[in-house]
Structures are given as structure tokens and as C-alpha cells.
Design goal:
371 residues, five-stranded mixed beta sheet
């Protein structure tokens, strides 16, 4: 059944809010219109001309990618270039292109969590917690509607602290207001000062979820004009880049690398460290996480699994005694497709959800045999 792109986007942003992306990133709708409709969604890590050509030939109206097609500011769209051609073909065939990049990297259940789950890590923690982009929402509610407003806020995504949801605090007090001409008060009369028993209800809200929380709060609140405060916070996030945890059982670096390669279906791995090094605690970061080497070391990791490891990063890790396993950027991120595919199939049961049948990995390995 055909659905509007706007409905698909709303579902995606409920899972992974655009507001969680890094400042330098460009997530969200890249090409197309929220008003366009489709009954087929194509999943891919990268948007290449081949991906768009396949989507057009098979009549997919929505491409969901991890890496943004449009990353840097465009000064022109030249259809003789691969980027310009992809944009032009997508528009000509009414194909929306949507990207979930660093916001998908940092969320619970995102890129790095999938890697941690594949390795069956225990006591998993966020490796690099960033700014939480949180605020405190305080609203004044008459006693009769306290539980109704409390529940509405929690159901809208407010009140998450770690793995606890619906976290609130309420303190009793007395509120006063004087309804003026033109008002339609739920309680009291125009021109008369009214006093009511109320609670100050407080909760924490991720800023990306604030509009939804406010709408839910106002919908459940009985007052014509609800009184509330929004206070920015500097709390550390319960999400972020990378994960760190304990392996199910200790193993050598050589065995660990072989196991990881089989799990990810890699044709080759880059490894830094002695094959016999004992690995108990592993840090993982899908994509390019070489900058996390110092943090992984200081967090007690024996090995860091990530892509795009360069020569000097490996030298730094070796001097710290931190092992590295690099399965490549593509292989380290591709497992998150399982999450996106499952999520969309559960929420859009009459829509076709398919992965691009080819690979968009631009790198390949050739074994060289010595004479």
C-alpha cells in the first residue's frame, strides 16, 4: 500500500531524531518531497548512480541510506557528474532520498550497538558520551490531571534516564491566576482571582523530542494556557559514539579477529597487535573510529574494532598496547541494515522493504602470492 514519504520520515525520526546528528553532518531528506507516495523502500549504505538506477528500474519511491548523498554545500547541480546525475534521476523518477548518518551512529540500537550485540558483549557502555542536548521541562498541573499529564509526557518520549523511562518529579503547591476578558478558563471565572491546588511536574527531555513532548503535555493539560518552563541542561548523554564491554569469554587476538571476520562476512581484516594477545574487553565503533584509540585505551579496552585505521593511528595504538581490528568501513556498518529493515517492516507491513542487492563498497582485496 502506498504511503506518503512524510509518514516514512516520521517513523524514521521517531527511531533516530535528526537533532542527534553532529553539527557537520547532513542527515534527513536529501532529495524529493514529503508529499510523494510510494509502496517500496530501498535500503543501502551509500547512494551511488547504480543504486538510483536500480531504484528507478524497480519503481522504488524511497531510498533510505546511511551515508548522505549530499554532504557538502552545493553551489550547482551538474548532471554530467555522478552526484548531479543521481539527483536528477531521483527527481525525474519521484524518488525520495533520505539519510540517517551520525544520528544512527550514536543512538541505542544503532550502528555500534549492533556490533556490540554481534560480539555478545556484556555490561556494555557508551564509549564516547557527548553532550546530551537535554532540557528540563517543568509544568504546573492541577492535582486532578497530574497523572494524565505525567503519562502523556512519558509516552511522548520525555523522562528517559539511562534505561529508565517516564522519570518525573512532582512537588505540591498553590497556583493563582486571574482570567481576563476573552478567556475561557477551565477553572474560575473572568475577572475573579482563582487559587488552585497544583503540582509542579518536572521531567528531562531530549531537545529533539521537545516539540512532541510539548504537544502531548498541552493535549493532556486541562488549562487553556498551561504554564511551563524549559531549562537547557548540560547533562551528559546516555548515547554517543562507540560501545565497550566484556567478551563472553577471553580469547586470543587471532581467534577474536577470525570470529569477527566470520560474523561480518569480511574477505580480509587489518590487525594491529600480537596474535596471542589475550582479549577480554572490547571497544567497537562502526565506520571510522580511529580517533577513539586514546579513549578506548583509557577505558580499559584490550582491542578496538573500527574501520579506516591509518598507519599513524595504528602506531599510536601499538605504543599504548591497544590491539586494533579493522574490518573496513563498509563491513563494520552494514549490520545496522538489519535494524532498519526490521523496524520498517514492523511499522509498514504493507510496504515492500528491500536492500540494494549489490555492494556499494568501493574497496576490494586482491591476494598476492609470492614466487
Amino acid at each position: 500500500m502506498a504511503v506518503k514519504a512524510g509518514k516514512i520520515i516520521a517513523l524514521l525520526e521517531e527511531l533516530t531524531p535528526v537533532g542527534l546528528q553532529e553539527d557537520w553532518d547532513n542527515c534527513g531528506l536529501q532529495v524529493g518531497s514529503r508529499q510523494w507516495t510510494t509502496d517500496k523502500i530501498l535500503l543501502t549504505l551509500d547512494v551511488t548512480p547504480e543504486v538510483v538506477e536500480f531504484a528507478a528500474s524497480e519503481q522504488y519511491g524511497f531510498i533510505l541510506a546511511h551515508h548522505p548523498l549530499i554532504f557538502h554545500k552545493l553551489s550547482k547541480i551538474d548532471v554530467s557528474t555522478p552526484l548531479g546525475s543521481s539527483i536528477a534521476d531521483a527527481l525525474a523518477n519521484r524518488i525520495c532520498i533520505y539519510a540517517m548518518h551520525t544520528n544512527l551512529d550514536v543512538i541505542r540500537g544503532g550502528v555500534s550497538d549492533v556490533l556490540a550485540e554481534l560480539l555478545k558483549l556484556r555490561n556494555t557502555q557508551v564509549l564516547d558520551k557527548g553532550s546530551g542536548k537535554y532540557c528540563k521541562l517543568a509544568v504546573y498541573v492541577p492535582d486532578s490531571h497530574l497523572e494524565q499529564v505525567r503519562r502523556a509526557l512519558g509516552d511522548a518520549g520525555a523522562g528517559w534516564i539511562g534505561n529508565y523511562s517516564h522519570c518525573t518529579f512532582a512537588a505540591p503547591g498553590r497556583g493563582q491566576f486571574l482570567p481576563r476578558e476573552g478567556t475561557s478558563p477551565w477553572l474560575g471565572r473572568q475577572g475573579e482571582l482563582t487559587e488552585v491546588s497544583e503540582h509542579k511536574l518536572e521531567t528531562i527531555v531530549q531537545r529533539s523530542r521537545l516539540p512532541a513532548a510539548l504537544a502531548a503535555m498541552k493535549g493532556a493539560h486541562p488549562y487553556e494556557e498551561a504554564a511551563y518552563d524549559i531549562i537547557p541542561l548540560e547533562n551528559e548523554a546516555n548515547f554517543g559514539l562507540g560501545r565497550i564491554g566484556l567478551l563472553p569469554e577471553p580469547m586470543t587476538l587471532g581467534d577474536f579477529a577470525s570470529w569477527l571476520g566470520k560474523l561480518l562476512g569480511c574477505t580480509a581484516l587489518k590487525i594491529c597487535g600480537e596474535p596471542g594477545k589475550l582479549i577480554k574487553k572490547a571497544a567497537v565503533c562502526g565506520g571510522s573510529g580511529g580517533n577513539l584509540v586514546p579513549l578506548a585505551h583509557h577505558s580499559g579496552a584490550d582491542v578496538l574494532v573500527t574501520g579506516d585505521i591509518g598507519h599513524h593511528t595504528a602506531l599510536d595504538a601499538a605504543q599504548l598496547g591497544l590491539a586494533l581490528v579493522d574490518p573496513g568501513h563498509y563491513c563494520s556498518e552494514y549490520p545496522v541494515m538489519n535494524v532498519l529493515e526490521s523496524y520498517l517492516k514492523n511499522n509498514l507491513q504493507e510496504t515492500v522493504i528491500t536492500r540494494f542487492p549489490g555492494s556499494t563498497d568501493p574497496l576490494w582485496i586482491k591476494a598476492i602470492q609470492s614466487e
